[in-house]
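Database export, one record per block. Field names are fixed; values are copied verbatim from the stored entry.
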Amino acid sequence: EDTDKAIIVTDLSNPFKLEFDTRNQIEVTVKAEDTTIKTYTIYVTRSHRKDITLKDLTINGIQIDGFTSTKDEYILSDLPYNTHQLNVDAVPNDDLASESGDGLISLDTGDNEIIITVTAHDTSITKTYKINVYREKNNDTGISNITLSGVEAVFNFETSNYEVTVPNNELE
């Protein structure tokens, strides 16, 4: 019969340190009303965490527009041609989870796809976040110089044409 007269002698005010994937032993000592002491052993196995969401996703230090941990695809369009790279930083909710695919990302002109993968602490599951990036194509039609038969052409600002005089022995 349980008379609620026994008391726990073990100090339970301090948390027990539980290691991952190991059989952690906790001993709890109980003293009965008649001063009989009994120690109970409890085995606790702490499993790895399974959080695969992101806490934050930034591009060049600014949180991506519309970011939530549950949304896994984003669009970043019309980046100017002179944007050659982005600094992508992905921060998992669980500090024991890992992420890959972030960092300094070089961009091609046109469509780019940045894939961020979060792996849970227990490594059994992953989640992929995708950022579709469009970098504008180069629209510069300018010419830096023209050389014909070793003679550099001169740009005429009034006519917006290049002019060059080649030696008279040049037939083509």
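Remark 1: The radius of gyration is 34 Å.
Remark 2: The mean pLDDT is 89.
End of record.
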